[in-house]
Amino acid sequence: MAKLKLDLHDIYSDGQTIELELNRIVQEAVTKKISLVEIIPGKGSGQLKKSVLRFLEQKHIKALYHRLEKDDKNFGRIFIHFRF
Length: 84
Description:
Blueprint: E1 3-7, H1 15-32, E2 36-40, H2 47-56, H3 59-62, E3 67-70, E4 78-81
Parallel strand pairs: 1-2
Antiparallel strand pairs: 2-4, 3-4
């Protein structure tokens, strides 16, 4: 199973770059028919994770993926599952 990974640690303070990277990774998964994307916002205060989840809940983005999973073993990790 192919998987894409996006680590947001390096760009955590740049909201515009974060949104661009999230768009890029979702579009790449759709284009290449990748079934799983792992996003690592990190643990921190949880604000970055909340903003990532808000981005993923947008209607036009939500229509692209099948299921969203928050890792129950690692608070700082989110999985997006695609169905192709």
